Amino acid sequence: MRLIYDLFFIIFSIFYIPYLLVKRKAHRDFFQKLGFLPREVTILSNPVWIHAVSVGEAALAAKLAADIKCKFKDTPVIVSTTTQTGNNMIRKLANGNVDAVFYYPIDMRMVTARVVRLLKPRLYVMVETELWPNLLEELYSKDVPVVIANGRISDGSFENYKKIRFVTRRILKGISCFCMQSDRDAERIQELGASSEKVFVTGNMKFDEKDPVPFDAVPGRERWGFNANDEIVVAGSTHCPEENEIIDIYKDLKADRKNLKLVLAPRHIERAEAIKIHVEKEGLKCRCLSGSAEDTGYDVLLVDTIGHLKDIYGIATVVFIGGSLVKKGGQNPIEAARWGKAVVFGPHMFNFREVSDIFLEHNAAFRVKDKRHLKDLTEELLNDPEKRDRAAEGARKVIEENTGAVSVTIEKVEEYL
Prior knowledge:
Elements: H1 2-22, H2 39-42, E1 48-52, H3 55-71, E2 77-81, H4 84-93, E3 100-103, H5 109-119, E4 123-127, H6 133-141, E5 146-151, H7 155-163, H8 165-173, E6 177-180, H9 183-191, E7 199-201, H10 217-223, E8 231-238, H11 242-254, E9 260-266, H12 272-281, E10 286-288, E11 300-302, H13 309-312, E12 318-321, H14 334-338, E13 342-345, H15 353-361, E14 366-367, H16 371-383, H17 385-401, H18 405-414
Parallel strand pairs: 1-2, 1-4, 2-3, 4-5, 5-6, 6-7, 8-9, 8-12, 9-11, 10-11, 12-13, 13-14
């Protein structure tokens, strides 16, 4: 089975690497994925290795690294990421708590064996759930404890893993501790083969983010080029064709609200130029966040940079969570709710089902069925500040009641340190 798996990766690489070169996506650190690690990583002695796929997981990895360093000052902590944006984010958030950052190795036996031999980790922590068979089996063979932190199994992943349960059961045998977000996630990982005595429900670590530093509404809005009396709809982490639908809604609402502004933050910023062209074709003035801050008087602010959406939520009147009108599974609503905003999402929140259900149960967010419903609800929320305030109060209560996952997870990690 492992031979077939390796053969698949070899064939995949034969086509994938030339594709990266042609598309100019093969960055200078790409060969780290093949096991050629930088010296700053390999000189560290028996580090704790934390893996974070991309931006969202990188923030959690930084929290774990900080707590580990606080209690085990002499223990090196290294973080791997899969994406370049995640790599950049963890470097930004490291604050001296991460000793080295590198790219996750491709899951081929000869590569994973080399990486584990070079690193000699004392503990491997994966943020959320990425089951790479060769790496996990290599760690297991070297008696390296493995902890899943903030583990979750989405609907899609669960269905796929069930088809290869005979493989997942073998993989999960080598994991020492499963810190899962919810009862449902815990049940699913056990159904896939995890031993029940290794599975714990520790909550969602994303609720444990510190409250953003509040800033006065007027200077905050001026920071992004808005006026104090502007009403602002922020559509965060959107996918195609959601932007087109949101622009249609915005144009309809703006006909009666001259001070209404729209912020569009696509999930994949490489689509920003195409979105800008569409916005301007619709007769709207558009400014990219990366452009001049002196450019004012626009209708749409297009977020084409990484790391700013979290703060921009703070100036919103209404927030729409992208990836939920289309079948992408939605995005995490916590960042927006933490600011005390009226949060709206569509029917497709299956990647964040537990989180979205918690908000809905506390009347702390709103779910719409389709584009028309989104327009009607947005208009209602713009007209009803008391309804927005009630949702904001519910959001604060949800966050307060669900904090503490990081400390519980760290307690489990400490058992292996």
